[in-house]
Amino acid sequence: NAGVMQNPRHLVRRRGQEARLRCSPMKGHSHVYWYRQLPEEGLKFMVYLQKENIIDESGMPKERFSAEFPKEGPSILRIQQVVRGDSAAYFCASSPPGQGSYTFGSGTRLTVV
Amino acid sequence: AQKVTQAQTEISVVEKEDVTLDCVYETRDTTYYLFWYKQPPSGELVFLIRRNSFDEQNEISGRYSWNFQKSTSSFNFTITASQVVDSAVYFCALSEAGEYGNKLVFGAGTILRVKS
User: Fold this and answer.
1) pLDDT, tens digit, 9 for 90 and up, residues B53-89
2) Which residues of B touch A (CB under 8 A)?
3) Rounded to whole angstroms, how far apart are CA atoms B78 and A85?
4) At a CB cut-off of 8 Å and minimum separation 6, what does B99 contact?
5) What is residue A108's three-state secondary structure?
């Protein structure tokens, strides 16, 4: 029973490029959460998704960031036209419905050069 | 609105000392969960404990213990006889069962350095 799989583990992008971060939740988990950890800071909530639905995107920057969790396949966090300030660790967590139980992936470390 | 405060930015101890990491939370909900996570230098998040708001019993797991006090909205974490391998960033977090589900709100974290 694999845990939450995030890929890639490390991603380097030049300013202006697009970054796509993938998260495959644990089997049986239908809820996905994305968090961002800026250097030397704690984790900040970005977005909460269920299959084909965005439930809460109150933590998402208004521009350049989007997320999806399609019926088939992993959840994708997409950052368009990356800037240096997007450099961070992005963590995905999944949970079964309503239990307050989360499993985190190992994170994707995005570096914008 | 939910809020988690970890007032200790960094703590340094010598091996075998006991150390307590403080966590104070704010929530208007009566049903919520509290968590502690460890983030070692390798960067992953390691789950340590989850406690629901109706269970105020203290918990002990090996060298780790947790003191949950609703009266002071605190959920403190103690490591007994600390070891170098305990060096990490420790995060306290809160989740509520609200309209938008159970997102986690994290504290800023406490860096623990255990010296040999």
Assistant:
1) 988 888 888 999 999 999 999 999 999 999 999 999 9
2) 33, 35, 37, 43-45, 47, 50, 52, 91, 93, 95, 97, 100-109
3) 35
4) none
5) strand
